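Q: Here's a chain of 454 amino acids. Please give me its 3D structure as tokens.
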Amino acid sequence: MDYFPLFCRLQGKRCLLVGGGEVAERKARLLLSAGADLHVGALHFSSAFRQWADSGEITPISGTFNDAWLDRCWLVVAATDDDAVNQQVAQAAEARRIFCNLVDAPEQASAIMPSIIDRSPLMVAVSSGGRAPVLARLLREKIEALLPQHLGQLASLAGTLRARVRQRFASMAQRRYFWERFFTSDRLAQTLANGDGARAAQMVDSLFSDALPAQGEVTLVGAGPGDAGLLTLKGLQQIQQADVIVYDRLVSEEILNLVRRDAERIFVGKRAGHHCVPQAQINQLLLEQAQRGKRVVRLKGGDPFIFGRGGEELEILAQHQIPFSVVPGVTAASGCSAYSGIPLTHRDHAQSVRLVTGHLQQENALEWEKLAAEQQTLVFYMGLTQAPHIQQQLMRHGMRADMPVALVENGTSTRQRVVTGTLERLSDLAQQVESPSLIIIGSVVSLRDRLRWF
């Protein structure tokens, strides 16, 4: 983070703007709209500045810059067409520990002015740290189009209700539930936009009187195989609404960064050969959190219903009548194969796909003869430690030794690594990668050299 985003109250506070031209005018309008006590120093003033001075909106200071202009200032903006003067202003402000914004030289400024979407009292600021102002402006325009004008009215009304909400609802979870219903009520927003205050008051009263849920709920969310861009829109919505996030090792840091910042995070990760939290304890944890009235998201790598033990976790919730839902995710087989340039099916290579767990607890747990059949693709989850056994059984049941195989480590992430070879070398190849890794076996692997893109 190059700059710390901060909203400052400038009403009645002395601010200095050095420069009296067109660029300075844009800065002046922003500062005046924020209610600053604006002093403007320059050799020459544009007509806009002269009008502001005549109407008493600014205090003009004629002449060349000197340090005395900084007396009692909270913020300084250097907006002249002379780089040397701008640098002089910046150095003087730095010496006095006053934040200074330099027009056209953000890398040397101690403060920058972002692109602003104004729905007062709601404000949205977009900044590229001065590196790409046009990009910041384009993003501002996109966000501007998404935010209705009446949001400001909704935010203002919310401000008048905060004390009432605190008095009516004892817990943070209840208050959050109220506010989410308040801000997502399209009818209330439209009523405010129409200026119907009496009707809006009735709708607010009904929100206060509506019963809040007595217990929480659990949502299983598939986080996908790693790339945060593969998280579904519904999954994103759920993790940003949750009170508690229960997550495992396969959930990437990039996805965790999307979680609501004040949500409680509980790590129940599992590593190969070492279970940090037993499955039964995870099930109980989900139940207890929901019984406390929390909205819980069980965030799992990949898809929760494909070797994710999601069904086991939901069974105990169903037994205790806890509401639950499931948001599917991109499973590792699909994500890792696509990012490796390996289609799971292909008309000339494979007409079916088998997803197989590599946790082979029993000797005859799998129908190896069917797995060794032609014209299909095999994807083994969690199969690294069992790679020698997989190799042995497939070859014993008729799969050719030169069948192409691929091992995908950290699939779809920036750390993705793909190792390819043949079935007869599978056990050796497994020594070259680390968990989490996926094993893909089938002639479709031979297409990787032509189709790899990531």
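Q: Can you summarize the key feature?
A: The chain has 17 helices and 19 strands.
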